[in-house]
Design a protein that fits this description.
disordered C terminus, 8 helices, two-stranded antiparallel sheet, 8% strand, two-stranded antiparallel ribbon, mainly alpha, single chain
Length: 132
C-alpha cells in the first residue's frame, strides 16, 4: 500500500450528502469557526447557504499552490468521518483510492492490517478494537 498522494478522490466523492458531523463538532464550529458553520444546516454538513443544496464536493477541498495535489482547508478540525477514512479495503476499491496497489488486492487481509496500522492515530480505540 502506498502513502496517500492527496488525489482528492475521497473528498470529491463524499462532498455531498455522504458525510456527517457530530453535534460536538458542529457546536465547536458554531463557536470557534463560523466560516465552517455557515455550511451546516439542520445538522447536515456542506450545504450551500444560497441554494440549501448539498455541495457536489467538499467546499474545503482545494488545490495545492503548485496544483499537483489536493489539500483540506480545514484539516485540523475536519469531521470525524474524514479523520476515519478510509476504514477498509472494500471502501478503497469502491472509491478508486490511489493508495492501493495490485498486491493489496491479492492479500486483502494483509492490506487491511497495513491500513489499520496507517490509520491507527486517526481512529478512536473502539474502531481499532473492532477490526481485530
Amino acid at each position: 500500500m502506498k502513502d496517500c498522494n492527496s488525489c482528492g478522490k475521497c473528498c470529491e466523492k463524499y462532498g455531498g450528502d455522504g458525510l456527517s458531523a457530530t453535534s460536538e463538532e458542529i457546536g465547536w464550529w458554531l463557536t470557534h469557526r463560523p466560516d465552517i458553520a455557515r455550511y451546516v444546516q439542520d445538522d447536515r454538513i456542506w450545504i450551500d447557504p444560497e441554494t440549501n443544496d448539498y455541495f457536489a464536493r467538499c467546499p474545503w477541498l482545494s488545490r495545492s499552490a503548485d496544483g499537483s495535489k489536493f489539500v483540506c482547508d480545514i484539516y485540523a478540525v475536519r469531521p470525524e468521518d474524514c479523520r476515519h477514512y478510509p476504514t477498509n479495503i472494500a471502501e478503497m476499491v469502491r472509491d478508486g483510492c490511489e493508495m492501493l496497489e495490485r498486491h493489496d488486492l491479492v492479500d486483502v487481509g494483509r492490506a487491511q492490517r497495513k491500513l489499520d496500522a496507517i490509520m491507527a492515530d486517526s481512529r478512536p480505540p473502539v474502531c481499532r478494537r473492532a477490526r481485530r
